[in-house]
Fold:
Amino acid sequence: MSERYKKSEDLLERALKTVPLGSQTFSKSITQLPHGISPYFADRGDGAYLYDVDGNKYIDFMNSLLSITLGYNDKDVVDAVKAQIDKGTIFSLASELEVQVAEKICEMVPCADMVRFGKNGSDATAGAIRVARAYTKKEHVLVCGYHGWQDWYIGTTPRNLGVPKSTSDLTHTFNYNDIESLEKLLKEFDGQVAAVILEPVNVMAPGNNFLQKVKDLTHQHKAVLIFDETITGFRYAKGGAQELFGVTPDLATFGKGLANGYPLSAVAGKREIMKLMEEIFFSFTFGGETLSLAASLGTLTKLQKEPVIETIQETGTYLMRSLSAKIEAHNLSHIFAVEGYPVWSFIISKDTNYATMWEIKTLMQQEMLENGMFMIGTHNMSYAHTKEHVDQLMEVYDLFFTKMKKVEQDKSIKQFIKSEPLVNLFKVR
Structure:
């Protein structure tokens, strides 16, 4: 047992008796956090910092899977929630907050005429698909990227256990930046496609006017275009990726950036489609839960009043440039590359003849966590991050790259890893 993570590992042993994988979220579990070199339980967060139950402090570049945009324990959001908590969290009637947050989203998001709330991104994408099917009276769906745990989508992935084949047979995947792959599916299922849903951007930037071509093709085939902005919304721009790239979908779904860590998601879009939300069943007891709505109103108001996105862009750009320079300085560009956007960037590694990318990732996590960085492959920036935090991250990258040079010299990585290497959960991007 690791002394550094003793309490975490004790809690994990206890949790595994009652909680599958010991966590409610795959990405926060033993599937992505190797035993012996990782914490498993957080105690608190503050600004850019995360503290685990053993008292270890990290600069957090994961930010709760991108759901923290402003920073942990942001005062404006906390104050908004505190002001609401004395009034109540849920009532026998709707609250004015539902209207206020919906109006705020409609102010900010180009496609938004009307809004309906859920609690998770998966709620929102499933709701968008259902209303698109109702609107078009068609059933097939074309997907690109990750869209949540619901049957309609997850049946297309290796994590499809328990999904009826009849459900998964209605969903088909196309490739990002490959317009021909979409065109082929639209022709194959001509007249049967209800919706095309994609993450408008993830690791790669849209090239060759890809998003506009997707929109044009989708509309030619009388299908609904849905942007899954669970990650990109209120992060890439105030109005999301659709504002950044100037392509407006029919519907969009939001989640992670909506309430700075409080559980809230949304479907937003054209009035003529969204009005069908009155006919389909998309209804939640806790859809109007007021603490999350208060947090969202506080978050979105701050996004409008302060240079949140601009600051995240600036700090993230500094990070990407600094990391690229480090890779070059260590002569490791044949293994590593920096991709993505400043607000959400990735360090990409390749297999070598002496180490797989998963072994390399495991060693990287080990070095990061031991040296006070919570970073497991992506840089999920928040308003709380500063250039000083980035400089500290670069110092740890220096340590890791130095160790990788030793790995390269010895043609062996296993002697450096203190745990079993990670394995692929499933790949969707």
In short: The longest strand covers residues 193-198. The chain has a mean pLDDT of 95. The chain has two domains: 6-61+308-416, 75-305.
